[in-house]
Design brief:
Distance between the termini: 55 Å
CATH superfamily of the largest domain: Type I PLP-dependent aspartate aminotransferase-like (Major domain)
Radius of gyration: 21 Å
Structural class: alpha/beta
Strand order of the largest sheet: 2-8-7-6-5-3-4
Number of helices: 13
Order of helices and strands: HHEHHEHEHEHEHEEEHHHEEHEEEH
Oligomer: single chain
Bound molecules: pyridoxal-5'-phosphate
CATH topology of the largest domain: Aspartate Aminotransferase, domain 2
CATH architecture of the largest domain: 3-Layer(aba) Sandwich
Number of strands: 13
CATH class of the largest domain: Alpha Beta
Largest sheet: 7 strands, mixed
Helix content: 40-55%
């Protein structure tokens, strides 16, 4: 008898998807819940789309590319990695994918057999846990605490290691907390990976969206090239979510395995997106910097306002999210509080519980929304709380 697999049935329905749907159907709702830039891609990127389309024949746009990514794009990525991330790589260390989500999934499939374990922080990006469950592996959580500025504690990682552990997954800058992991802590985690011979997955999706602090790439630390797979995306820095383009860099044996896995998932990343990505890497820094500055202005505003209205919020150093403690203003759990805000204040935010059980008691707001909208959302929340 035909039926939906148990694995699929156990996957959580994403509240974020539901929130986006409600917000797009009800125009009176202001959404500060989304995880993608409100900006369109900068002009040189749009020009690159037009140019690529006009030369569709020469560019082989109707055709698959090499399954691990175009050679010219890989060359440009190598230069970018050397300059911005201080990572030395060769083409064989790079896998180009449909967004970094695909690369992460290929990484999980290539390192974790059923019931093996991966250590990751909680609260954490909501794309990780379902992906880990899909490969029938087990997530082991290291709790991030507000009083520690949501900084990951290397000692807690060490305590979580056992014979089944294969991977330590870190995310800097972090979604949802905005924490940027310091070089010192990265070094301590690197020591642990060497001591226990574990892979480190370092998700750096928000690498360019950093304020008041410096971003370090785990893969740049001495001697870590055999341990670290770094994940990058064009989605956030270049506002190119819809192009679905990302890449991973890591040890050759693992990126080879990931390439094989990715090939059976998507055959190849889209040819047009890779051509556009190539132009994005050549584009002047000024376009990214202009977006970063605007996020920074919004960040300062929203954090100040959230604290004024009673939603305790640490200043995030990266990404475009705030993670606010709701316990001073409500007895509700974060899910019910977010639903009530949606119904009564007409503002969509994401309940902290979506990011794992240690996200309970918090809400995530996104400042990837225009400042006047953020201001109106804050006024509405303030009125609701009164
Ligand atoms: C931390 C983090 N990693 C990875 C992704 C995946 O992004 P993409 O597949 O667009 O590269 C996201 C998306 O929101 C994210 O927040």
């Amino acid at each position: 008898m035909k039926q939906i697999s148990e694995r699929e049935q156990e996957l959580p329905d994403s509240m974020l998807g539901m929130l986006s749907e409600i917000a797009s159907e009800h125009k009176e709702i202001i959404s500060i819940s989304v995880g993608e830039p409100d900006f369109d891609a900068p002009k040189p990127i749009i020009e690159a789309v037009k140019k690529a389309a006009l030369n569709y024949k020469k560019n082989q746009l109707s055709h698959y590319s090499s399954h691990s990514g175009r050679s010219d794009l890989k060359e440009a990525i190598i230069k970018k990695l050397r300059k911005e991330n201080k990572i030395n790589a060769r083409k064989e260390n790079i896998l180009v994918t449909c967004g970094s989500q695909e690369a992460i999934f290929a990484g999980l499939l290539s390192t974790l057999d059923p019931s093996e374990e991966i250590i990751l922080s909680n609260p954490g990006y909501l794309g990780y846990i379902p992906a880990i469950e899909l490969v029938n592996a087990n997530p082991v959580y290291v709790r991030l605490k507000e009083e520690n500025n949501f900084e990951i504690e290397p000692d807690k990682i060490k305590e979580a290691i056992n014979k089944k552990t294969q991977v330590i997954l870190i995310n800097t800058p972090s979604n949802p907390t905005g924490n940027v992991i310091s070089k010192k802590i990265l070094e301590e985690i690197a020591d642990i990976a060497r001591e226990y011979d574990l892979y480190i997955f370092c998700d750096e999706a928000y690498e360019r969206l950093v304020y008041d602090k410096k971003h370090f790439s785990m893969g740049s630390l001495n001697g870590m090239e055999d341990y670290v797979v770094s994940f990058y995306t064009f989605s956030k820095s270049y506002a190119m979510c819809g192009f679905r383009l990302g890449y991973a860099v890591g040890p050759k044996d693992l990126t080879d395995a990931m390439a094989k896995t990715a090939q059976y998932m998507t055959l190849s990343p889209p040819t047009i997106s890779q051509l556009v990505g190539l132009e994005a890497l050549k584009m002047s820094n000024m376009y990214i910097e202009a977006m970063r500055k605007e996020y920074d202005e919004r960040r300062r505003f929203i954090v100040k306002k959230l604290n004024e209205i009673g939603l305790r919020t640490k200043i995030p150093n990266g990404a475009f999210y705030t993670f606010s403690n709701i316990k001073d203003v409500t007895k509700k759990n974060s899910h019910d509080f977010a639903l009530d805000l949606l119904k009564k204040a007409k503002v969509a935010v994401v309940p902290g519980s979506e990011f794992g059980r240690h996200g309970e008691g918090y809400i995530r707001c996104s400042y990837a929304a225009k400042l006047p909208l953020i201001k109106e959302a804050m006024n509405r929340i303030e009125k609701y709380l009164k």
